[in-house]
Amino acid sequence: MLTNYKNSIISYRNNRSTCLLQNNFKNNLIFIIKQNQFKRNNKLLLMKLIIVIFSIALAKLSDQTITNKVLINVQIGDKDVGSFELSLFGDIVPKTVENFITLCSSGKYNNSPFHRVIPQFMIQGGDFTNKDGTGGQAIFGDKFDDENFKLNHEVGCISMANAGPNTNGSQFFITTVDTNWLNGKHVVFGKVSDNFELIKKLEQYGSQTGKPKQSLILKQCKLVEQ
């Protein structure tokens, strides 16, 4: 049962279902339906409905204040192919953004690969220790806790990769499609704000196993003066 909502909640109950209507801070209506009993073939539909409803409640990336910008230069094979820009939301997730920009400014990410690329999903990088997805390290120690899940997994967002709850290190991924099923599981902390076309180009070198068809290198990561 859902309790302790900060916003106003109107509830209606009958013998078959409970509907809760919440008015959030941005006047978006969140509809949450919980039936007393479900047949097995309806459980998947319910899960999808919950994911969609939860996504509506999350903050849109376009509404957020940008606190930091980062420029990432990329290399495919031995060829420089340009750079893309990330805008970060330090007001919402200050610890996660601090971790990322400190690793950027210290050069930790430089010459590390995008080791996992799946078409119609995402590109993943940030393992500067083992460079294969098994390593990486946060500035706070080996791992740090999930800060919050306030931001939505939209197209072009940057989010923390993890191995389960509260296992954030240095690895991150950038989505190439809507991935709202990841809401509540990974911490979004920014978005691609310039040259998303380069992200889509990198995506073309991916595979369903995640192994890139060619080396994709994060050549340099640097902060952008604002």
Mind explaining what this structure looks like?
- With 226 residues, the protein is an alpha+beta fold.
- 17% of the residues lie in helices and 31% in strands.
- The protein is built from 3 helices and 12 strands.
- It has helices at 40-57, 94-105, 196-203; strands spanning 9-13, 17-23, 29-35, 68-76, 79-88, 112-113, 116-118, 122-125, 157-160, 172-175, 188-194, 216-224.
- The strands form 2 sheets. The chain has a 9-stranded antiparallel sheet. The protein has a 3-stranded antiparallel sheet with strand order 1-2-3.
- The protein starts with 8 loop residues before the first strand and ends with a strand.
- Mean pLDDT is 83; it is low at 1-38.
How are the strands of the largest sheet arranged? 6-12-4-5-11-9-10-8-7
Helix content: 10-25%
Q: Segments where pLDDT lies below 50 for 5+ residues?
A: 1-38
Main beta sheet strand tally, sense and closure: 9 strands, antiparallel
Radius of gyration over alpha carbons? 19 Å
The helix/strand series, from N terminus to C terminus, equals: EEEHEEHEEEEEEHE
Spatial separation of the terminal alpha carbons: 45 Å
The average pLDDT score comes to 83
- Structural class call reads alpha+beta
Number of helices: 3
Strand fraction: 25-35%
Total DSSP E strands: 12
Shape: globular
